[in-house]
Fold this protein.
Amino acid sequence: MVKIVLKSVVKSVGHGIKNDPEIKRIYNRYPKTFRFIKNRLTPNEKYGLYLTIGSLITLFFIYLFFEVIQSYVGQEALIRADLRIINLISHFRTSKLNQFMLFITYLAQGEIIAVAVIFSLIILYLLRKWSYIRSLLVFVVGGELFVWIIKNIIDRPRPPLTEALVTETSYSFPSGHSFIAVAFYGLIVFFLFDSLKKKYLKIISLILGIILVILIGASRIYLGAHWPSDVLASYTSGLAWLTIIITITHIKKKFNSKIIQAPHLPHKTITKISILLIIIFSFIVYLFYKSHPLKNITIAPISKTIIQTNEIDTKLFTTLPKISETITAALAEPINIIIVANKEILNKALIDSGWFLLDQISPKTSLKIISSITKNKSYPQTPGLPVFWDTRSNDIGFGKPTQENLASSRHHIHFWETNFITSDNQLIWVGTAHFDQEIKTIGKIILPIHTTDQMVDKEREDIKNTLEQNGFVKSFEKINLTGLTYGSKKSGNNFLTDGQAYILYLQDK
């Protein structure tokens, strides 16, 4: 019913435009231009509507690709977020997830793709899908050449080795694995979508293809082999290339009058051969995965710089930022707490003073957060959204719920371990503290951010006083870092501070 109404509306609009006197006058003045436009919008023209739509989609993805390049050249927000995203993802690594991501990334490895292409060509040959064979060869070979050329033009180094689980020697931009994922698996999905008769099979193949392509790109970021913008560039350029191939293939299929040849073998036989090739391919992938395990990369620990306690206020921030930042490097809140203590003492001091060590963000904790908010359940270890400092997400976080003991309202501290250490081997931590008033909402939609109290200095004073009252402060000093500052964070929260910070030297009770 909706389709009929829309068709009627479009037809009426088209009829009205066609009979508009002003349109007629312009048409009579530029008849060739109007005929050209009409032909480009006519479905039954060989170079009509299908070519127009394909060209527009291709140009859109090409535009996005050059936007990524422009961001890299200009070091814009997208590129500034790269290192912060990689640093953040490193917190989520587990041995099982490492192995899963390694398996996924091998699905786009050159050797595996070569086998997959050969098997695909065999099946397509048996089916006499000559246009598909040409498309597959042109797409994969042309795509590999494109990636090689762009890599050597952009000449971008790989992410820092300290964050990588796999080693790569070629240039980073764009991601070859991500591009080939779109090039090969995307084209296979198109072949299936174009050939399958049942709609639910078309939808399943499309969904599975999208998930696989996304996972392959995510694996490259997770393993530290590529910057996120490398993967984004591969997706945009790969989709542009895929759109070109699909458009050409579709036009040839629709307007080619050649008689379709019957397959070399009965369909049942071809189906059996295809299943056998898929089983063999799966076995080859498994053998490759087992014979190319994840190797532990031995990285020398970053040495700590010794600093005297009386130099902390003058030397600590000589090369380090005084203000925390968002994932795109936009300034957030100034540092207002500096702790001099080993991690065990820091944890004990805060926990014994009524604070909770916050959980890391994970699928499990995300479900607990939702349950806490919707059912008003107590979850004092609710993880907060990561905050960045010197490109790193906070190492640890602490929260102290209000009397309601809910995640929506609490005192909140983020801490980062610095590369400085005192002469008596005490670590130096920097932190930001504020009060989370409530969870933000838009209508009935719950957002994963808090509204915070504007007066952040109050939190600083409360933390110092509480730790002092509980006997954990050996000594302290107050220093001026930024001066009087009124700022606004990307989350929309404003803050006001005198720009001072406490240096707290902690001790065990």
